[in-house]
Amino acid sequence: MSYIIGVSSGAFGAAATEERPQLLGLYKKAQYSVTQGVQFVQIDLESISELEEPDLEELMKKNIIEKLHIIFGIHSETKAFGVEAAEPDSALETEYKRAHIRLLDILEKAGKIGSKYVLIHSSESDPFPLLALRAQPAELVDFFGRHFNEFLEKNEELVKWVMDGKGKFLWVEIIGRDIDQYLAEYKSEVKREFKLAREKIIPPEQLEEESEKYAEDEKIHRKGQLRRQLFDIVFSRSLHYGPERWAYYLVAKWMEKNSDPLWKKIIDATLNFFVERERKEKKNQKITRETFLSSRNVKNLYSMDDEGFKDFHELWVPAVSAKYIWGHLNPERCEDPEWKGRFRDPKPIIKNYDMPLILESPMGGRGIEEWLRFCNPLQMYCLAEEVGTEYLQLALDLEHMLSIRLDPELVIRLFPEGAGRFVRVIHAGWPSTLAPAHVPIPLGSEQQQYLYRMYYLLREKGFGTDPKEDYFILFERGPFPIQQSIIALREIAKFLEQGISPEKLPPEFYGIATGEVASEERQRVIIIEHFFDPLEGVIAIPEEKYTFLGKAATEKGKPPEQWKKEELK
Question: What is the DSSP secondary structure assignment for residue 61, as one 8-state letter?
Answer without folding.
Answer: I
